Every structure is written in C-alpha cells, then in structure tokens.
Amino acid sequence: MATPHPLVGRYGPLKRRRLTILLAGGVLGAATLVGAGLASGLLGGSPAPEDAPAVILAHGLGRTPASMAVLANRLEEAGFRVVRFGYPSRSEPIETLVDRLRGEVERCCGNDPRRVHFVTHSMGGVLVRSYLSERPEPHEGRVVMLSPPNQGSEIVDAFADSELLRSFLGPAGSRLGTTPDGIASQLPPVRFSLGIITGSRSMNPIGSWLIPGPDDGSVGIDRANVEGSSSFLVLPATHTFIMNRRDVAEEVVHFLRHGRFRQDRA
C-alpha cells in the first residue's frame, strides 16, 4: 500500500476523511456540472461524410461523452467524422476498458484502424495509450491528449489508503498514481504521433495543494508529458474545462491535420 502524501499524513484520520470528501466531492461536482450543462442539444450536429477522417473522442474519469460535446461539434465543423466513445470509467478495470475501446475502433473504423485519430481528456489518454501499446503494427493516425496523467497524479498517491476515494475513482482511476505499480509507470514510451495540451490554472485548491509545482488542479504540468510525444503545449486552462476552449479546439484541429500545434516554434 502506498505511503500517504506528506501533506496529508500530518493530519489525523478524521481530518483526512474530511479532505477526501472535499476532494472527491469537488471532482464529482465538476464532472456533473459539465455533463448537465452540455448534455442538452450539443451531441447533435451535421455528421461528416463517411470518407472524412475519423476521430474517436475518449472522455475522462467520471465523465460521459457529453463532456466532450463542444469539442466534438468544433471537430465536425472542421470536417472530421467524430465518434464519441463512452465507457464506464469508475466501475471497470483498465483492461476491460481497453477491450471496450478496441471494440469501438472495430465498429467505426474496422476497415483501416491504423489511420483513426484519437482526442482524449484526462484518463482517456491513458486508455488510448494502453490500447495502442498492445497493437503490433505502427499507428498512422494522430493523437491529441488534453490534461493527461501520463506520469500519474500525486492526488491518487495522497489518498491511496482511503476506501472512500478508491471507491470514487474505481479500479481504473485508482491506478493513476505515480508509484511503480501505477498504470502510468507500466506503459512503454509512445510510438505514434502525439500532441499534448495541458493547463496551468486550477479550480481545485486541495488538489493543487497536493501537487508540487504548477498544475491544472488534477495533474501537474510535468506529469502530463510522456517520452515520445512530438508536441507539448501549456495553456491557461483548468483540468475540468480544457476541452471547451476554442483555442484548444483550434490547436487540436491543427495537430490532426499537420502533426504539430500552431504555437510550435518553426
């Protein structure tokens, strides 16, 4: 069992439980707000032609495809065929979620799965990395990850011994720590075209208190990157709402088309 974060370890069990409730409640509240605010009317739009480049969207922990609706519409407006992948992020282990993603790829893009693009938020990035690491052939599509815990998150480390937080995170989310037994430590370097956008602003003071250095409220900036990525961009965004920013959507579109962000130096 992991050792609690030093800042958490100084408190007694009652105060630690209160911190856990505040942290879990804040994350769950933000996810609920995103889902409720976007579920109405934003999952529609004119579908792109069947021969348009396909992009699979993978949402984050505790979310639904509704949380990616604004980004999905902007990608469709840019001419992509968007597939909104939904999965039970808090109830199944990462291996089962990878199987679900594999099935989604086969349904939408079975004729040419190597060319499909992925755009992910938070834990969705780890899920796509896990899926692509199992494929023997090179992946020709491009991947953009938004605020991914590619090297884990200290928040998971801090409350590793909390039954309440483990119950909230589920079997997959509980493996998003920075320790050697975490999924992030076990995945190999990426072997595909990857751009990463992460944020430098926080709506989660407890989370930021636990993370050393600048962060987006859930993931430290340094923890978002991964060996093998081709572009890494930091914007003044929060973990919860990074996918709704217009400048983020524009950077995503540019990377999917050109393999680099607009703000990359020539």
Structure description:
By secondary structure, the chain is of the alpha/beta class. The protein has a single domain (6-258), classed as Rossmann fold, CATH 3.40.50. It has eleven helices and six strands. A six-stranded parallel β-sheet has the order 2-1-3-4-5-6, sandwiched between helices. The protein is globular and about 50 Å long. Mean pLDDT is 86; it is low at 24-45.
How are the SSEs ordered, and which strands pair?
Elements: H1 6-9, H2 13-38, E1 54-58, H3 69-77, E2 81-85, H4 94-109, E3 117-121, H5 123-133, E4 142-146, H6 154-158, H7 163-173, H8 183-186, E5 193-199, H9 205-210, H10 221-224, E6 231-235, H11 246-258
Parallel strand pairs: 1-2, 1-3, 3-4, 4-5, 5-6
Helix pairs in contact: 4-5
CATH architectural group: 3-Layer(aba) Sandwich
The helix content, as a percent range, equals 40-55%
CATH superfamily, please?
Alpha/Beta hydrolase fold, catalytic domain
Order of helices and strands: HHEHEHEHEHHHEHHEH
Give the tally of β-strands: 6
Could you give a short description of this structure?
This protein is 41% helix and 12% strand. The chain is built from eleven helices and six strands.
Descriptors:
Rossmann fold; 6 strands; alpha/beta; 266 residues
